[in-house]
Specification:
The radius of gyration is 17 Å and the shape is globular. It is 15% helix and 45% strand. It folds into 2 domains: 11-119, no CATH class; 121-190, Barwin-like endoglucanases (Beta Barrel). It has helices at 18-25, 77-83, 127-133, 173-179; strands at 5-10, 13-15, 33-36, 43-52, 57-65, 72-75, 89-90, 99-104, 109-119, 122-125, 140-145, 152-161, 168-172, 185-190. Bound molecules: zinc ion.
Length: 191
């Protein structure tokens, strides 16, 4: 039987540069760790922002720390539709030519010319995990999620290998809803 791994749902969230943190939250502001995430060093923050699209806005959106080199907004297709923007499916960090958006914080606002994406579903792995699964960085695999009422096989899942990662698959809220992948949930690679 294939080895299973944790499948986590990433709700909409924002990664910010230090400059944008100061614009949104005030001079000298830094992010406050509210909760550590499964990936080592990554954390959910106390701070929240409002996303403002041409159609509607979404309030109290989570920020994930630490600060990054480029501000990035990760949405579901449902969120993008709510905001009224057309965002592409991309791997985290690949924001060139992605959708523009306005972010509003308590101290100011930031208009990004690109950076709003729908995260491509992916599995974080260590090199040792990758060897066990017989895959390598950037491989595209299919993952089966067995749920009570909506078992689903997701194709186009990118494998991301780094010794800084912990083994977990990340899907967005649309994907979790589609597969009934709620609570503590596990998947397996199918060939
Ligand atoms: Zn991830």
């Amino acid at each position: 039987m294939a080895e299973k791994f944790l499948v986590e749902t990433s709700a909409r969230h924002v990664h910010l540069t230090n400059a944008d943190i100061e614009t949104l939250f005030g001079k000298g502001a830094t992010l406050t760790n509210k909760k550590d995430l499964s990936q080592p060093g990554q954390f959910a923050c106390e701070e929240r922002v409002t996303l403002v699209g041409p159609k509607k806005q979404i309030e109290r959106v989570s920020i994930l720390g630490p600060a990054r080199k480029a501000t990035q907004v990760e949405l579901s297709f449902t969120d993008a539709r709510t905001l009224g923007i057309s965002a592409p499916v991309r791997e985290s960090g690949d924001v060139a030519g992605s959708a523009p958006l306005k972010l509003v914080g308590p101290a100011g606002e930031v208009e990004i010319s690109e950076g709003a994406i729908i995260a491509k579903r992916h599995i974080h792995m260590t090199p040792a995990d990758a060897e066990r699964f017989g895959v390598k960085d950037k491989d595209i695999v299919s993952v089966k999620l067995d749920s009570a009422d909506r078992s689903t096989i997701f194709g186009d899942v990118v494998v991301r290998v780094s010794d800084k990662f912990a083994l977990a698959m990340h899907i967005d809220t649309d994907e979790a809803n589609a597969a009934c992948a709620f609570g503590e949930f596990y998947g397996e690679i199918v060939k």
